[in-house]
From TrEMBL:
Pfam families: CpsB_CapC. It catalyses: O-phospho-L-tyrosyl-[protein] + H2O = L-tyrosyl-[protein] + phosphate. This is protein-tyrosine-phosphatase. Keywords: Hydrolase. It is an enzyme of class 3 (hydrolase). Belongs to the metallo-dependent hydrolases superfamily. CpsB/CapC family.
């Protein structure tokens, strides 16, 4: 499996505090079946002053230690990026890294307040050739009254990343409800751990994959953690990647199947 959202780099944001914790997280990920992990620390001016070159340097240092320790985990660069002025310029000049230098990048909205001009800002990023992957919409406190906003963003070309722990109940019943809704209605493009430690917010995908498989079938469960993440890292254009089947599409498909069956019987 491939995990495209983690805070495993030690000491540069609110994720792993020490190298020892980062190594423990890496071992947990490998034990869970994860072979590739994106290092995506926060970039938030005034709080987490990370940038592309610095993240690359920290990633190289940790990869070197993983290799020395014999931990078979490949690290790639990314960032958990907040919607701030200058974002587009930062993406263009490399100060803000995309996922493995592709057109895809993680975009984290405010947890507590809808960003002003949110839809317009996302559209501008898409029009510039990028594909924002909006992180953990199910955990935002304002999702209840703005769920249609996320559906419109998907129509524009944005992708959605649901947190594995939300589906397993780690973040409580509210996040679980919205995580299941995004998943079951076909509005989840990838699952990721958003791991921050080796304690509570751990780099484990398998339990959420089992939930996805039960809800959507094995093929789509693998798309969420294997196929789409791999195609992202290969920078395949989004219109060339099979997208989730929405609930309405599934209903129409079932209706068409039923009509064909009745037609054959008649």
């Amino acid at each position: 499996m491939i995990d495209l959202h983690s805070h495993i780099l030690p000491g540069i944001d609110d994720g792993a505090k020490t190298l020892a914790m980062a190594l423990e997280m890496a071992r947990m990920a490998v034990d869970d079946g994860i072979h590739t992990m994106a290092c995506t620390p926060h970039i938030y001016p005034g709080m987490y002053m990370n940038d592309g070159p610095g993240i690359e340097r920290h990633r190289n240092n940790l990869q070197r230690v993983l290799d020395m320790q014999g931990i078979p985990l490949k690290l790639v660069v990314g960032a958990d990026v907040h919607l701030v002025p200058g974002l587009l310029d930062g993406l263009r000049d490399g100060r803000i890294p995309t996922l493995h230098r592709t057109r895809y990048f993680l975009l984290e909205p405010s947890h507590t307040t809808p960003p002003p001009r949110f839809e317009d800002s996302v559209f501008d990023l898409i029009a510039a050739g990028y594909t924002p992957v909006i992180t953990h919409p199910e955990r935002l406190t304002w999702v209840e009254n703005h769920y249609p906003v996320f559906l419109r963003l998907i129509e524009q070309g944005a992708w959605m990343q649901v947190t594995a722990g939300a589906l397993t109940g780690m973040f409580g019943p509210r996040a679980r409800y919205w995580g299941e809704r995004f998943l079951n209605e076909g509005h989840t493009h990838i699952l990721a751990t958003d791991a921050h430690s080796s304690g509570r917010r751990v780099p484990v995908l398998s339990a959420a994959v089992a939930i996805a498989e039960q809800a959507l079938g094995k093929e789509e469960a693998l798309n969420l953690v294997v196929n789409r993440p791999r195609l992202i890292l290969e920078d395949v254009p989004p219109d060339a990647i099979p997208l989730p089947e929405t609930a309405s599409t599934r209903r129409n498909g079932l209706k068409n199947w039923w009509n064909r069956l009745l037609h054959r019987k008649n």
